[in-house]
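WARN  no MSA supplied for this record, continuing single-sequence
INFO  ligand: iron/sulfur cluster
INFO  echoing inputs
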Amino acid sequence: MTTMQLEPELIPLAMLNALAYCPRRFVYEYVQGEMLLNAHVVEGTLRHAAVDAEGTAWRGEVVQHRRVYVWSDRLRIGGFCDVVEEQAGQLQPVEYKKGKPGKWPSDHVQLCGQALCLEERTGQMIGQGAIFYFAARRREVVVFTPELRAQTEQVVAAAHALVASGELPPPVEQRAKCRECSLEPLCMPRLAGLLERWQARGEELG
Ligand code: SF4
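INFO  complex generated
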């Protein structure tokens, strides 16, 4: 089914993560407002609540600004950085995630979106950021390479295009993603794939 939606002013940064993971998931979550709660989603929300308090703290030489709202007028995206760290005048965004580093780089796209917003707001080049994974107790440094920046801008363009069209994209090819996706019971990717093939065969037969 196709639904038309008015384009919002800013697409939330967290939704760039959803789109980089799977365009169909982006449309379910953002355009259609669907969300299924499971233990992983609830745990992630609680973990985030623990780092969501606003404020500033000093960790040695590093100043940590918590829950900083950033946006880009150029890209029409916006949202909160969990933490923006400041050291010797240099800024870097830090994102907190419940799980372990994933096989798919969608977290990197979300973080790079934060960096692009920070750059536009401050005029400062942001060379790198970090993601802290609670389950792995690991902080991963993410360098904002030209390739990651280009990928992030492509994801932003795709997000605006999907919001404008309201189209529900087909399921992703990588079914390992579906096994880890909280929306799998709603999406039913195997059935959706079968229906698409039946429809294509029907159109071929006239
Ligand atoms: S189940 Fe698979 S195709 Fe469906 S939204 Fe999740 S990742 Fe995308």
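Residues 1-6 have pLDDT under 50 and may be disordered.
INFO  checksum written, moving to next record
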